[in-house]
């Protein structure tokens, strides 16, 4: 009796199996690409936030260095509403404005006519804060104007058109001490991590990405 053995030949992958494998690989690659985009966006956001924190701290340091102006309410007329300063690089004609008329006059002298660039070499009053002037030293109000205009330009160079508001009053604490609040607002360009963020962007627009950093200073 002869036994006949049938040997089944090996078979390859079917077209359906290949397509399923390709779909799985494609989904994985898309996930990796999204993760990389999120990481790059987060790195950029962290960089901007760190720069804003550093620049804001530098303005606070300038206030401490010029206490003759910032810590004395009478130097800015001690108006009931306090001293307010708006810094907006997008406003090229008047990027720095102040409620104190004397400070505003010094700021105007510190800004050149083109693009709001600080006038550090002309005859503007704050020019003496850098060059020494003739025989007249830089007064506290001129120093404050010089610091603000220089800071506005530096802030614009590192983070773009972030708007800043400086508000000073004597409400404390401590009692009757000058307290200044520096508030910086800017917009962030981020990558939507999920559908919730995508929906929020469509609903609220750019306001969804508006960020704020605040620092309280006692000059």
Topology:
Blueprint: H1 15-65, H2 67-70, E1 83-87, E2 96-98, H3 101-110, H4 128-131, H5 140-159, E3 163-169, E4 179-187, H6 195-204, E5 210-217
Antiparallel strand pairs: 1-2, 1-3, 3-4, 4-5
Helix pairs in contact: 1-5, 3-5
Key terms for this structure?
6 helices; alpha+beta; 5-stranded antiparallel β-sheet; 219 residues; elongated
Structure description:
The protein has one domain (15-217). Helices cover 45% and strands 15% of the residues. The chain contains 6 helices and 5 strands. It has helices at residues 15-65, 67-70, 101-110, 128-131, 140-159, 195-204, and strands at 83-87, 96-98, 163-169, 179-187, 210-217. Strands 2-1-3-4-5 form a 5-stranded antiparallel β-sheet. The radius of gyration is 30 Å and the shape is elongated.
pLDDT < 50 runs, ≥5 residues: 113-125
Strand content: 5-15%
- State the end-to-end distance: 110 Å
How would you state the average pLDDT, rounded?
75
What Rg, in angstroms, do the CA atoms define?
30 Å
Element-by-element helix/strand order? HHEEHHHEEHE
Query: What is the oligomer described by this structure?
Result: single chain
Shape: elongated
Order of strands in the sheet with most strands = 2-1-3-4-5
| Largest sheet entry | 5 strands, antiparallel
Number of strands: 5
Q: What is the count of structural domains? A: 1
What class would the helix/strand composition place it in? Answer: alpha+beta
* Helical fraction: 40-55%
**Helix segment tally:** 6
């Amino acid at each position: 009796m002869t036994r006949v053995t049938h040997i089944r030949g090996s078979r390859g992958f079917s077209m359906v199996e290949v397509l399923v494998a390709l779909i799985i690989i494609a989904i994985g690659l898309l996930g990796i690409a999204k993760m990389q985009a999120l990481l790059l966006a987060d790195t950029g956001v962290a960089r901007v936030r760190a720069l804003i924190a550093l620049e804001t701290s530098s303005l606070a340091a300038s206030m401490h260095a010029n206490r003759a102006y910032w810590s004395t309410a009478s130097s800015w007329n001690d108006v009931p509403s306090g001293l307010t300063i708006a810094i907006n690089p997008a406003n090229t004609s008047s990027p720095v404005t102040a409620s104190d008329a004397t400070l505003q006059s010094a700021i105007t002298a510190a800004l050149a006519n083109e693009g709001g660039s600080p006038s550090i070499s002309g005859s503007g009053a704050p020019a003496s804060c850098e060059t020494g002037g003739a025989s007249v030293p830089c007064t506290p109000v001129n120093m404050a104007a010089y610091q603000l205009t220089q800071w506005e330009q530096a802030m614009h160079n590192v983070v773009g058109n972030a708007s800043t508001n400086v508000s000073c009053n004597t409400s404390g604490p401590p009692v009757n001490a000058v307290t200044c609040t520096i508030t910086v607002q800017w917009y962030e360009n981020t990558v939507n991590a999920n559908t919730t963020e995508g929906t929020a962007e469509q609903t609220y627009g750019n306001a969804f990405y508006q960020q704020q950093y605040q620092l309280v200073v006692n000059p």
